[in-house]
Amino acid sequence: MSLFKKKSKKFDFTNPIKKKQQIRKNKAIIGGSLVAFITIVALVAVTQLDKIKEFLSKASGENANLVVDTQAVIGTMPRPWRNLAQGGEAFDWRIQPINGQVAALKPDYIRIDHIYDFYEIVKGSPGNITFDFTKFDVILDDITATGAKPFIALSYMPPAISSGDIISPPVNWTDWQVVVQKTIEHVSGTRGISDVYYEVWNEPDLFGDWKYYGERNYLTMYTYAARGASNAHGVKRFKIGGPGITALYKNWFDALAKHAIANNLRYDFFSWHRYNHNVDQYRNDMTDVRSWLQKFPQLDGSLELQITEWGHDSENHAGYDNSYGAAHTVSGAIEMVGVVDRAFVFEIQDGKDPAGQSYWGRWGLISHADAGAKAKPRYYALRMLDKIADLRLQLLGKGSWVKALAAKDVEENVNVVLSNFDIYGRHAETVPLTFTNIEPGEYTITKEYLNGQQTSEKVATTAAKLQVMIPMAANTVSFVKLSPNFVLNDNVETRPVGLPPTDFSPVSPTTQPPRADGPQIQRRTEL
């Protein structure tokens, strides 16, 4: 029996008026029911939003199944994370009090900005300027004392030549050209530091609202800076570029590339900043910018690509004080290996919280001096990551959450760094880690977690492969070492491997990894 016939028994369709009334009534009932149903579904969806997100996340992600070929050396281990940046937290900030902590990170370069407004390099008035590098030399000494070289953001506009504040254009652009020339001649000439990088400005699209056109034209700023660089005499090898914009923008890339080529300007590197919770974004950026670069054959092959600030959030964020930031930093750095040549972790040390808190979601690897200058989890994560050996090995089977990197040393000790980063702080997995092409025999497996937990166990195999299981809680970083024929020291404790704590935080044992939409305290707009 059809549905229509069922309805025809209940309703009288012979009367046209009644028929229309009944149809309208029917529609109203159905419409009302539908609205009620949608409302209920929406309310349920809102109340269960976290669970829905978690379900969708799990449904779309893959767990890791790591396989390390212990004989497949693919080159020397790149270390893009060995670059640090410091923001303008205070004009009298020094590295010297934390020199040991910073040097332990083995930085290749340390980036600083605010050089003209913090260190009072330029004196006089427009058209009549003099130079005093005394204060600037102090921070340069601090940088070189760590074993690093300076990466200098030529910012901001010296008050002596500015038409307004420190983010305004100069009265005369020729003064800016001379300022850049004399800066390079001092650092790369008088001081004799080779391979210094000079970055024209810092986040021009934010600080000064510069464009690549119009009255505040960054291309004009870059032109005079490049001319100043070309005029520098008696200097060692250096590089100049920019613009150090707040994110990767194709219009900025194209505009600067076209301008440099058309005007025959020196242009050694293109730079940008990237703050993103998605650790794949750094790799995506490089894919994009390299595709853009192919359209400029005059630059392709010579133009370096630099991420001169990076982190998970450009705002203050609680994750910078706990294991969330630690796992993000290691996962992000792992994804950069072989793709990004140099990326600058922002920043070295916290500024002082106006409210007096020791930990306030600031970007530093180390807390402010008034808070004891204590190393935070991100700092220890970088130390753990940098323990990895120099001979990079082929590693397959990374997952959606767990990223990993493998290497070995000349004594055939195999290292694997694992990081399980989840923006919701929930995803845990036990990761199968298989070592292939090994010699049959006895080995020692050491598992070290960022929270300090360490276990060691002896294993033996008669096959050419060995598999171990690595428990990884959410936002956990671990270091695994496979040592052949290794004899345990008496002071190494061996105990069952359990699931490590989910957090390692200087704030409190109960601190939870923040949500991706967590605290958004303050836009990083300090000058």
Q: Can you offer a commentary on this structure?
A:
Strands 17-16-19-14-13-12-1-15-18 form a 9-stranded mixed sheet. Helix 7 packs across helix 8 and helix 11 runs parallel beside helix 12. The protein is built from 12 helices and 19 strands. With 527 residues, it is an alpha/beta fold. Helix 7 links the parallel strand 6 and strand 7. Helix content is 29%, strand content 24%. The N terminus and C terminus are likely disordered.
**What distance lies between the first and last C-alpha atoms, to the nearest angstrom?**
78 Å
Strand order of the largest sheet: 17-16-19-14-13-12-1-15-18
Low-confidence stretches: 1-25, 34-47, 49-59, 486-527
- Tell me, what's the shape? elongated
**Rg, nearest Å:** 29 Å
Instruction: Find the count of extended strands (DSSP E, 2+ residues).
Output: 19
**Biggest beta-sheet profile:** 9 strands, mixed
| Helix content class | 25-40%
Task: Return the average pLDDT rounded to an integer.
Answer: 87
Helix count from the secondary structure assignment:
12
Task: Please outline the helices and strands.
Elements: H1 3-10, H2 16-47, H3 49-60, E1 66-76, E2 83-86, H4 99-103, E3 109-112, H5 115-118, E4 122-125, E5 128-131, H6 134-145, E6 149-154, H7 173-190, E7 196-200, H8 218-231, E8 238-245, H9 250-262, E9 269-275, H10 281-293, E10 304-311, H11 323-336, E11 342-346, H12 377-385, E12 391-396, E13 402-408, E14 414-420, E15 429-436, E16 441-449, E17 454-461, E18 465-472, E19 476-484
Parallel strand pairs: 1-15, 2-3, 2-11, 3-6, 6-7, 7-8, 8-9, 9-10, 10-11
Antiparallel strand pairs: 1-12, 4-5, 12-13, 13-14, 14-19, 15-18, 16-17, 16-19
Helix pairs in contact: 7-8, 11-12
